[in-house]
Amino acid sequence: MTDTPLDLDAYRRRIGFDGHLTPTLATLARLIERHAATIAFENIEVLAGRVPDLSRAALERKMVRGARGGYCYEQNALFQAVLGAIGFDVAALEARVRAGVPADVVTGRTHMALQVRVEGVDYLADVGFGGLAPTTPVPLEDESLTADRVGAYRIVAADDDKLLQLVHGGESTDCYRIVASRPEPRDHELGNWFVATHPGSMLGRNLLAGIATAAGRLTLFNRKLTLRTREGTQENTLRSRAEFAAVLADDFRLALGDGDLDAVMQAVGRDDGEPDDPA
User: Fold this and answer.
1) What is the per-residue pLDDT for 1?
2) Which of 3, 241, 242, 279 is such that its CA lies 20 to 30 A from the CA of 109?
């Protein structure tokens, strides 16, 4: 990936961050919150048949200067660069997705998250896990619950790995299993290519968008639009191209061309929701 200078001022304007960029826990929490509320998770690049470009210049062009979002490799690669430029001690993590996956199915290492060390404490930072990503830092070595605006998260031991869980409405959901080994940049490049090109990849066959809102967490999975709040969930079904265009533009803040909207409609027209091989 090309090592180009990062325009922190442009990023600050993009997410509406008006505080001091110092490597503190308060800054990290505010950055995650603002990023999650302005740069939507979305996989439309993949639905349109393109492998996302993970170079820093491409990530800035798409998500900072352009009105687009991205999925985990794009979102967390950009966020890692931002945190590093500020002076945070940040490292990439690799994980196996568990959300929506049967217990006996072993998934690939196809999720990227971040570890950030602040004042000797390691935190999970993740702005790229769809509608389930925590909107606050989560301690990696403490199994107590950490609340965000919608629910609460915890990290529990899973053999040598660590498992991120969401607790919402009295129920616990396994999100992903962070593997103990540390990935190299090439590992994320391979994972990005696999998720974008494998015929059984869930993100290659289904539309997924997510963004934090003042009310809670808004998620679009194919035709189902879900708002998750502390009080519960509200669901709606999108049916027409005009509805998709309006929701993606107004609620998820995405500027899409006709070709990308065509790819969206082709994906939701299939709307089976079941991956052949979870990724």
Assistant:
1) 44
2) 3
